[in-house]
Write a structure and sequence with these properties.
CATH architecture of the largest domain: Orthogonal Bundle
Radius of gyration: 23 Å
CATH superfamily of the largest domain: DNA Cyclobutane Dipyrimidine Photolyase, subunit A, domain 3
Strand content: 5-15%
CATH class of the largest domain: Mainly Alpha
Distance between the termini: 52 Å
Largest sheet: 3 strands, parallel
């Protein structure tokens, strides 16, 4: 059993299939050197991943097994381990990203040459690949028709618990297989103490239980970053410490307005996964061909200010500082920050996508790419390019009292609830506060940049 984006022993489709084969199962995880090599030494995902592996390993050991861990190229490590352990099959759950598909195809070929097979299963989504197509047999490229088709095709049986007992089913290798430390992996500066999110399978279950008691308020509270209104489950779904079926079962059991709204978010997640599967080119370029050569000015000074939370727009700056500090950004703020980068600063959406990819604890290629192309109006979304968020209006609506801004932009804490959204428009400011000295003046004028964005896209 090769664990990848499914770091749990419970309700794991590939693991359950392996356990039912009647032979002892070796459990393996590979720290993919190709994925880890470009990451900074303080990448916040590594402590989260490492903690999940520690807990998974303890669970497997308690059941009489072990987690064999390697650090290298899976295309070499998996076939080598399969041969060393005399395995007739490698079980894993399917990954829909372009790199994963190429990797798995190569590994399957290597294994087959040695009379071993790679068995892949659907685990991370309810519907995959070609399971939901239009009446013309084509993939959906607009969310609403996809959502309707998803709901029509869904049945509670699709999210039943797939667990199989680990008892007397796991193999234990004859060699030692220690879990490398973060320092040994080259991430000595990635401190798990800096993580605010509960980790591992136990942390995932705690968060799911907490959300189940708040889910009825999800629809009314999810857009307010100063309120505990969202699930905080995205990283656990990304790394698979929770199964999508567990989350679905919680959602169905709630059966209220909030759960219905949350279900739509889960469907958005699957929409972007199937979009990446059918149109892998979106990973590197705009979905809409007519926007693949947009002449973005790409002012590097403005981009740096955006990355560092120094644009002079308080809500945008608070959002970026939250991301830099914690590896998390509230979903409403992801839309605001992305719209501001593309439509106000006129910077290529791929610059922002890459920055989010380097910082987000819950980074998922399909969701991150889909969200950025939605904000940039270059994706499959039916909304036109003139959807441009006003950062001040968004601030006044979703952080009316400035609570979120005050937390992440403390230099504005003394401003009143009106001035804090747009200090440059305030009739009066505290005597001790000076715009341009204590906090930047806006680096651009929103109204002017809005017209420039409209002209850029219209051309």
């Amino acid at each position: 059993m090769w664990f990848r984006r499914d770091l749990r022993s419970h309700d794991n489709v590939a693991l359950s299939a392996a356990l039912r084969c009647g032979l002892k199962v070796h459990c393996v995880f590979i720290f993919d050197r190709l994925i880890l090599a470009p990451l900074p030494a303080n990448d916040m995902r590594l402590p989260f991943l490492h903690a999940a592996l520690q807990e998974l390993r303890a669970t497997l050991q308690a059941a009489g097994g072990e987690l064999i861990v390697r650090h290298g190229d899976p295309q070499q490590e998996i076939p080598a381990l399969a041969a060393q352990l005399n395995c007739d099959a490698v079980y894993a759950n399917r990954d829909y990203e372009p790199y994963a598909r190429q990797r798995d195809a190569a590994i399957s070929e290597h294994l087959a040459a040695n009379l071993c097979r790679l068995q892949l299963y659907k685990d991370t989504v309810i519907f995959e690949q070609d399971q939901l197509l239009t009446g013309q047999g084509k993939p959906y490229t607009v969310f609403t028709p996809y959502m309707k088709r998803w709901r029509q095709g869904f049945h509670p049986a699709l999210c039943h618990d797939t667990s199989t007992s680990l008892s007397n089913a796991l193999a234990k290798p004859e060699f030692d297989c220690p879990l490398p430390s973060l320092a040994e992996l080259g991430f000595a500066h990635a401190s798990p103490a800096g993580l605010r999110l509960q980790t591992g399978r136990s942390g995932a279950l705690n968060l799911l239980d907490d959300f189940s008691r708040r889910i009825s308020h999800y629809k009314t509270q999810r857009d307010y970053p100063a309120v505990k209104g969202v699930s905080y489950l995205s990283a656990h779904l990304r790394f698979g410490t929770l199964s999508v079926r567990e989350v679905m079962r919680t959602t169905l059991a709630a059966n209220n307005e909030g759960a219905e709204c949350w279900l739509n978010e889960l469907i958005w997640r699957e929409f972007y996964q199937q979009l990446l599967w059918h149109f892998p080119h979106v990973a590197t370029e705009s979905f809409k061909a007519e926007y693949r050569s947009l002449p973005f000015p790409n002012n590097e000074t403005w981009f740096t200010a955006w990355c560092e939370g120094r644009t002079g727009y308080p809500l945008v700056d608070a959002a970026m500082r939250q991301l830099n500090h914690s590896g998390y950004m509230h979903n409403r703020l992801r839309m605001v920050a992305a719209s501001f980068l593309v439509k106000d600063l006129l910077i290529d959406w791929r610059w922002g996508e890459r920055y989010f990819a380097s910082k987000l604890l819950d980074f998922d290629l399909a969701a991150n790419n889909g969200g950025w192309q939605w904000a940039a109006s270059t994706g499959c979304d039916a909304q036109p390019y003139f959807r441009i968020f006003n950062p001040v209006t968004q601030s006044e609506k979703f952080d009316a009292r400035g609570q979120f801004i005050r937390r992440y932009v403390p230099e504005l804490a003394q401003l009143d609830d009106k001035a804090i959204h747009a200090p440059w428009q305030a009739k009066s400011l505290p005597p001790s506060f000076q715009l341009g000295r204590d906090y930047p003046a806006p680096i651009v004028d929103h109204a002017t940049q809005r017209e420039a964005a409209l002209a850029l896209f219209a051309r």
